[in-house]
Amino acid sequence: MANKALEGVNVVAFILGITGPLTTAILASYGAQVLRIESRTRIEWHRQAGPFVGNVSQPDRSAAYLFVNSGVYGVTLNLKHPRAMEVMTKITKWADVVVDNFAGGVMKRMGMGYEDLKKIKPDIIMLSAAIYGQTGPYADIPGHGGTLTALTGLPNITGFTDQKPQFPGFTITDFIAPRANVLAIVAALDYRQRTGKGLYIDAAQMESVIPLMTPVLLEYEANGKEAERMGNRTAYAAPHGVYQCKGDNRWCTICVYDTNEWERFCMVVGKPAWKESTEFGTLIDRLKNVDKLDSLIEEWTMEHSPEEVVSLVRSAGIAAGIVQNGQDLDNDPQLQHRHFYWELDHPEIGKFTYSGMPAMLSKTPYEIRRAPMLGEHNEYVCTELLGISDEEFAQLISDGVLE
Asked: What pLDDT is recorded for position 2?
């Protein structure tokens, strides 16, 4: 395979959950060499969370862990051991980038803050991706994607008008912040290449997600009005919703924005009279009578499978899509065409499927590699990457420095 875009970049990661691991998994996919530091005495909670492959609850069988830790090398190091800093000094000299996503101040209290690491390697780049960042009244408060999602305000506009605020089904923030983290790291690498100087990146996960709420902020800033939960609807289009289709729990989405689209949609559903109807003729009319409109449309969609509905509506140049479930995504022809899924062998569980990267570089292809087993690469990292002798490596194991 051709050289990758980030080949030659060495990363050490003190991470947990999703945000930190997904950040480093992206870097690894594009060629960076990533060491993830873990512990056997304090196993990361993601290794303890399900679902477990084969319903066997073991650290190396957690699908949640496997999915977001692709491509990294696994090292188990007892950071509380007196000799741990000897190993960390060697790792820091080897590394170009250090990544952590602990609460603000944790790395500094462990003696591995940016100023500490700079003394070992002056041009080191460090990214700290705390929930709130490293400064401010919330900086040292721990959190996770659930609390962060609430703090961004997203649940306040998710759900229907008669419901309480709703989470969007999963901690969406955990999958957005890593993209901003990677961008910052690449920018820092470019800066170091031009100046020879390292950087500290104070990345606040909350601030990377707030732009999702731009329409809410604009509404408040411009008109002093709070956005309300609208379910699947919008003030700018009708129909605009999710409609039940033929089959067991099968659904589709349809979005009609302008007059031309509306007229074509009326022909698709066999209701040409709707074009001139006083109830549905204009967007304002449709919004006033949206409950009745949605009910009539759903009578039509329930006569067809979601695939049939989408094919008919799209053929008229109107946006429509299937509400896909896990099985649909696994068999999606577009994703299959782009070889998005990578099925890889794992020594403990056999085959496991990983998602690919959303950007394909023409000259430097990415590659997905499987997630590590706990402590799998201790010997390789120490003897091959750090230059530790076999005798010293054995002593580190014997002394409990490497777990």
From this structure: 57
